[in-house]
Each structure stands twice: as structure tokens, then as C-alpha cells.
Amino acid sequence: MPGTSREVLEYSLEIVYKLVAGEDVSEFKNKELFYKYANDEVEDCIDLICSKFSLSIFKTMDGKALVLTPGIENKAFGYNNEELRRKLWGNNEKLYIAYFIIMVIITMFYKESAMDSSVPFIYIKDVIDEVDKKFNALIEREDLEEVSREYSYNFAALAKSWHKMMVKKDEEDLGNLGFKDKISAVSTVCRFLNNEGLILIEAYRGEGGGIVPTERFKSIIYNFFEDRGNKSQILEFTRQLGDE
Predict the structure, then answer these.
(1) Which of 138, 164, 188, 220: CA 20 to 30 A from 19?
(2) pLDDT tens track of the chain, all 244 residues?
(3) Residues 200, 194: contact at Cβ < 8 Å?
(4) DSSP 178
């Protein structure tokens, strides 16, 4: 294990560098560095480095790998809205629809507000149905304008835009990207989450395929909502839509 301040700093910087560069630091790759993280001095040093760059590093819930996440509005290591618009093939309105779809996916994987266990698998077609259900519930609210102001989220415009999208039932369209219709919108979001290592798309499943959460996804959700005591009001609001 590290024995001097210089060694601690070198190991800490190397771990942070590997993760920022997109490499795995786990029991299977960069194994030596992974086990250096178990040293309290190395972990403390990494926490200090990360705090200066608005980053967080923690172990996955199964304890087999390290996960790096940028802080909110991290301009150096996170995505800004323009970059996300390009990745999600959309404008601002479609970007916020994508955010809403992501929140719906989270609430489907985590049926309860506790974030320590998740549903192992959901069908993509069920995501489309759930987004439909929640946008319908939004439209029916008498306090929709007030809710939109409270969450700084123009729910009325987003719901209107979502319902204008074409509805296709052809399962072959599940691979199409863009926001031409509801299926391609959800497929685009799922492809983005898959590319970020947050879900796995299992196209071989019946009924148009499905998605499973990765250890990275589960660990980020747990650490954000449980370990740090963060409570997302808008996520809980999304969870409750249509269940009243």
C-alpha cells in the first residue's frame, strides 16, 4: 500500500486520470489501482482532487468497480445543453422531453422512493406507454401552470409536443433515432443511456426489446439520492403522476 505523501498523490492522480479518460478501474481492469483505492489516504486524496473539479468517485454497489460522475453544471467534464441537443438529435423542447423520458425510466426501475433496489428489466414499449400515461395525467391537472412555474418546466408545451408525435406500432422502428415519433424518441434516449454505460439495450427480448440498468446506473442513483441525502422533488413529482 502507499507509504508516502508522494505515492498517495501519484496513485490518486492516476486513478482520477484513468476514470476521466474513460477507462475502467475495477477488479478486471487496472486492478492494482482499484485496490489502491481501498487505502484511506488515497481515498481522502481522491476526494480532495474531485472536490476541486466538481467530480465524484465511488464504488459500484457490487463493490467491483469505481464510478466517476461530474457534478451538476460541470462545464469541464459534464455535458452542456448544446452538446446534449446534438447527441439527442433535438432542439430545446425535445431535450426537455428527453429529460422527462429519463425521469420516467428512473421511476420505472425504482418503483419505490428507496433507491437501494431496482426492477431488473423493463420493456421499451412499456416506457412509451408510461410516458403517455404521465403526460396525460399532467394535461388533466388543474394546477398545470402553477406546477410548471414551480419546477421551471413547461409541462404543458412538452405534453402537447409529445402528443403531436406520430404513434407507430411497428417493432422494426424501435431502432430508429430522432424525435419523429414516440418510438424513435424513446429509442434515442435509450441509445444515449446505453452509450453512457447506464443501461443495456437487449433487442433480442420479445415485444420490441427492453433495457436493463447497469451497475453504474444503479450506483449513481443510489449515491445521489441516498448517500448524499439529495431528494429530487421533480423526480418524486414524476413518479406520482397518474398514480393519484
Answers:
(1) 188
(2) 555 688 999 999 999 999 999 899 999 999 999 999 999 999 999 999 998 888 889 899 889 999 998 876 666 666 777 777 777 766 778 888 888 999 999 989 987 655 666 788 999 999 999 999 988 888 888 888 888 887 777 888 888 888 888 665 555 555 556 677 888 889 889 999 999 889 999 876 666 689 999 999 988 888 776 644 445 677 777 878 877 5
(3) yes
(4) S
| 86 and 198 belong to one structural domain | yes
Burial of 25 (0-12, 13-18, 19+ CB in 10 A): buried
What are 212's strand-pairing partners?
Answer: 200
Host domain of residue 13: 5-70
* CB contact set of 16 (below 8 Å; sequence gap of 6+): 46, 49, 50, 55, 57, 68
Query: Domain for residue 177, yes or no?
Result: yes
Q: What is the DSSP-derived secondary structure letter of residue 175?
A: G
Per DSSP, the residues of 115-173 read: -S---S-EEHHHHHHHHHHHHHHHHT-TTHHHHHHHHT--HHHHHHHHHHSB----GGG
* Number of domains into which the chain is organized: 2
Residue 38 forms part of a structural domain: yes
Mark whether 130 and 204 lie in a shared domain.
yes
Domain contains 76: no
Are 146 and 208 members of one domain? yes
